[in-house]
Amino acid sequence: MEFPTALVLNAIVAGLLLGGFYAAVSVGISISFGMLDVVNIAHPAFIILGSYVAYSFNDRMGVDPIVVSIVLSPLFFAFGLLLYRIYYQCFEKRGQESLRGLAFFFGILFITEVVLVLVFGVDYRLVGTAYSSTTLHLGAVDFPLRLAVPFVVAVTMVVCVQLYLSRTFFGRAVLAVAQDQLALRLMGVNPIRVKEFAFALSIATAGVAGALLIVIQPVQPAIGREYIGLVFAVCVLGGMGSIWGTLLGALILGLAESFTSTFFGPSWAPAVSFGILLAALAFKPSGLLGR
Fold first, then answer.
1. Where are the alpha helices (DSSP H) in the chain?
2. What's the pLDDT score for residue 149?
3. How many domains does the chain have?
4. Is residue 207 a part of any domain in this protein?
């Protein structure tokens, strides 16, 4: 089979742009699941919620959905604080987070989906932006701005999260909370409060990722289920709790899906992506950049 150079280059560009978006939707899981050991299976539901919030403001006021998500990220942060307090008091504090806590997040997932169906219906919704239909051309390579703009925002968000977690005292406390909570208490830090703020940060990133999603494609309430396996696959492939690993794993899966869809058909893309995940775990169970 011959692979034309232009087709290969466009597949690489599309894969990298898609991988950047995958990093945005997965970074929150890397925090909650990889660092805090909270299996937030409802994370994709909060992404879709962010999509619909961005859609509402864009539809009524014409505001860019990405701007909306950044401005309203404190509300998602506050929602994350409230959600973790409920989760901690009802499950984690009693040592019942393993099964009942998972059921709790499953319930949140379906409640969020049902509420969105009742409010917005089951039809697909999309947004209009100044760049959605614009494509830049560099020789034979195309850069659709509906993918390029979310890619830039996604990578910027991932880098900012990494810098915050690695350069601040609170960030280092988040990294330490999963390793030794007793040592953290001896330093005068409340590990529950650290986990609460870190979980809220993961929900805030989901709100931004939701805006990126609706810029890239139309959404409907049930579409979040498609991302449940993806976000955990990226988190595990990159290495549990590694933000740089999340970015690397997302780019690899994005490239794999792009090449598979381009040359063999989109139906093969999920199988190839998860095949890469299984192969990586077979040779490096801790993930690509895991410790």
1. 5-29, 43-61, 65-71, 73-90, 100-120, 145-167, 169-177, 181-186, 191-216, 228-238, 243-263, 269-283
2. 93
3. 1
4. yes
